């Protein structure tokens, strides 16, 4: 590695590096909203993976179907960074089926809340006070997960494997990007689907979205940016390194939103959000627990998949399948709405409530039964 790369490595590993990454994410998340992405959804890993699931026909909710270039950029940007710095390492084999189901339940919880941890921060930065309940739930879920980590919970070690395994997820993202560019139609009523109304129809220009995704993927791979990890590290070790980047994301996005006139304080109605506080809390608590058990937030899983981690790729696929399940079985949250001047509070269906409870039960079983005895 050259001296120049060594200097960059030291910078990205430093507090200044993680703060820089958080500022870049906060800045461009707000700008993507200005450029056309949905309100308070400049970046949302869960929402964007849900849109991809819809575009592929894994669900038929017509308002959330779009091949989001940001997701492709996250993985490919991380792959570029890992290759440049000699960190691309194909590895897999650490309880993949468990990771797949954790991805499913992480997505179910996120879509009950209507956002991933990144969107929770961006919703708060846009004045959506419902995000407070979501962030509180996320923290509690991670806290529960940390207790399992302390008691010996472990998914086991990933093993070095064939290079093709590490390239499957970047390869998939290249294919999806080609689909976005060509917009093929495989037959009457067949994928690829693109929303004509609703959040899926709102998107920044392709090249801008892709460029931002590549930049963030590169920076996040180098700095190990992770919202779940930031809370986990404080609870486990009192380490504030990662949280300084997450905090910078929030502050930067809020300042940029103020400048752009994208702040509206209140609970209802907020864009693509509901004010059912209990389920905002419980949905993100389920996601937080699943993220902690899987070892990373949805963004971090994408970045790891980009550097060759097949297990993180399985978690990502679990989230995409979970999006299909959420919408096909009407588990996702329903946003608040103004109808003829009257507020209709959204929330979730009875099936969604049962899914969250079932998700907690499965995650707790995984946490209790996959513990090594501590000597």
UniProtKB/TrEMBL annotation:
InterPro entries attached to this UniProt entry: Seleno_YedE, Sulf_transp_TsuA/YedE
Keywords, sorted A to Z: Membrane, Transmembrane, Transmembrane helix
TM annotation in the entry: 12-32, 71-88, 100-120, 132-149, 161-182, 202-220, 241-261, 281-300, 312-331, 351-370
ATP-binding is among the record's keywords: no
The name this protein goes by in its record: Uncharacterized protein
Organism, scientific name: Vecturithrix granuli
């Amino acid at each position: 590695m050259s001296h120049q790369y060594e200097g960059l490595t030291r910078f990205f590993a430093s507090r200044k590096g993680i703060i820089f990454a958080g500022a870049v994410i906060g800045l461009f998340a707000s700008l993507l909203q200005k450029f056309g992405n949905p309100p308070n959804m400049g970046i949302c890993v869960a929402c964007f993976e849900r849109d991809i699931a819809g575009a592929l026909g894994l669900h038929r909710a017509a308002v959330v179907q779009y091949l989001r270039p940001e997701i492709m950029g996250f993985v490919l940007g991380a792959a570029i960074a890992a290759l440049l710095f000699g960190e691309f390492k194909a590895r897999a084999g650490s309880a993949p089926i468990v990771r797949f189901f954790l991805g499913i339940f992480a997505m179910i919880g996120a879509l009950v809340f209507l956002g991933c941890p990144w969107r929770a921060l961006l919703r708060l930065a846009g004045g959506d006070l419902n995000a407070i309940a979501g962030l509180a739930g996320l923290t509690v879920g991670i806290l529960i997960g940390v207790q399992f980590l302390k008691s010996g919970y472990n998914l086991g070690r990933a093993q070095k494997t064939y290079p093709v395994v590490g390239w499957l997820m970047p390869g998939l993202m290249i294919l999806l990007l080609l689909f976005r560019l060509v917009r093929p139609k495989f037959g009457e009523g067949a994928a690829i689907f693109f929303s004509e109304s609703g959040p899926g129809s709102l998107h920044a220009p392709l090249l801008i979205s892709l460029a931002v995704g590549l930049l963030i993927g590169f920076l996040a791979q180098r700095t190990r940016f992770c919202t779940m990890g930031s809370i986990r590290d404080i609870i486990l070790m009192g380490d504030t390194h990662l949280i300084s980047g997450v905090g910078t994301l929030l502050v930067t996005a809020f300042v940029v939103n103020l400048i752009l006139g994208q702040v509206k304080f209140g609970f209802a109605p907020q864009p693509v959000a509901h004010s059912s506080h209990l389920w905002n809390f419980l949905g993100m608590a389920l996601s937080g627990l699943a993220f902690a058990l899987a070892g990373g937030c949805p963004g971090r899983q994408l970045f790891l998949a980009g550097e060759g981690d097949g297990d993180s790729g399985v978690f990502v696929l679990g989230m995409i399948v979970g999006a299909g399940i959420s919408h096909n079985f009407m588990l996702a949250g329903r946003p608040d709405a103004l109808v003829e001047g009257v507020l209709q509070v959204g929330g979730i269906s009875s099936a969604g409530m049962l899914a969250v409870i079932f998700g907690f039960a499965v995650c707790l079983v995984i946490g209790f039964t996959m513990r090594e005895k501590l000597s």
